Request: fold
Amino acid sequence: MAYYSYPNKQINIPYLLKIGEGKLPKMGRYLVDKNFNNIALFWGEGLEGVLGNILTKSLQTYGINVIYKQEVKFINIEEVNKVAFNLPYNIDAIVGIGGGKALDFAKYCGYLLKIPFISVPTSTSNDGFCSPNCSLLVDGRRKSVKAGIPFGVVIDLDIVKSSPRVFFYSGLGDMLSKITALWDWKKAAQKGMAHYNDFAALMAYNSLDLLFIKHSFDINSTEFQRSLTNSLLISGIAMEIAGTSRPASGSEHLISHALDAVSKYPQMHGLQVGVSTYLCALLQNNSSIESLREVFFKTGFFEFVEQNPLNYYEYVDALRLAPTIKQDYYTVLSEKDIFSQAVELIEQDEILRVLIKKSS
Ligand SMILES: [Zn+2]
Reply:
């Protein structure tokens, strides 16, 4: 859905934004500063046992009451609705702490009740922690649902840093996908099939620069993790400004969604997206292909995926399905003969051949 007919629409940004080390122990102060005294808390599975004490201490110090708390296990939209409308009436803010599910759950509750949502990601495996959408189960299938940008984002790099490497590679793949998404968006606009927003595109390009001009590609360094986090955050806001997911999602995301549908064991979102970004950049003859290849190599992304490659047969099925996933949605995959070109590339390109394998 596009908002282009409402040029003066209000754009939301996170009003509380803290990224750095030692942020979770300061949560109480951040919340009090914004006059939030009564909160609902949604935890990712198993996280309360690890982080509960730190948070409780901070909340108690500042007299913040946890009126409701829940561990999030399921994300079907009916359940989120039920929980949201049964929450106590005196809640000032909803806090979600965790990876994807807890944030999606809490974000949607906040959106339904028009209560500020504060996103506290414990890993940065995709741009969902600061995007205007959430991923919920609708009729048994994962679907992106509109939910509004978070009121607050608090990222404690001490916590993020301890997450497994796969999360960073996934976040990196999701971030680099802006390269192909922006190409698709621009081309779609030229064909009269989308409305381009120069400012949102500029933000998304700038967020990529943060990664490309980094001298360190060591994914374990705080410096790299901070850049990745900042980039993902800005790309989330670019979607809010554009009023569409176009600046952050294009052909490469269609392939990943298709892989989720056809794969026996889908891999993490950003890994599928990252590999598909490389393929789609080749198909687009994208001018950033060299930089893209460099970042993927230097960070060890390719090497990481190679250890557990995508399945060739599933990938080919996904390629066939991908252009049909969204109606009237131009991407490079809409081009004539692109399917056979893509299959040829995954069979012959020396990088793709080891990332997508028949034997896996
Ligand atoms: Zn994504």
Q: What stands out?
A: The domain at 16-161 is CATH 3.40.50.1970 (Rossmann fold). The chain has 16 helices and ten strands. The pocket of zinc ion is lined by residues 126-127, 174, 249, 253, 269, 273 (CB under 6 Å).
